[in-house]
Each structure stands twice: as C-alpha cells, then as structure tokens.
Specification:
Layout lengths: L3 H22 L32
Length: 57
C-alpha cells in the first residue's frame, strides 16, 4: 500500500505533466493580415472591453 507522502508526490507529478501537455497543446498567437511587427512597422492591437495595466517597476 502506498503511503500518503508517495500519493502526494505522484499527484504533483501528474498535475505537472498535465500542465505541460495543455501548455504544448495550445498554438501561439499570430498577427492576422499583412506582416507587421518590424522595427518601423509595429503591430497595433485594438482592445475591446476593460484592461488592467500594471506599472513597470
């Protein structure tokens, strides 16, 4: 029989593996439309709704 410590350790490992699978399952965001994001051609994002902004330290 597995003791409580082993169960906790195995549960943490399983949760970490699930998190890695979910992280790698999502596709990275890409800009839609013409190429942008260069030094002199930045991408602009239109935000709908409210956005919370944290100041830089």
């Amino acid at each position: 029989m597995i003791d409580r410590y082993s169960k906790i350790v195995l549960t943490v490992i399983a949760a970490a593996l699930c998190a890695l699978v979910l992280q790698n399952a999502t596709t990275p965001a890409e800009a839609v439309g013409r190429d942008c994001g260069e030094r002199f051609d930045p991408c602009y994002v239109k935000v709908q709704g409210s956005v919370s902004v944290k100041p830089l330290d």
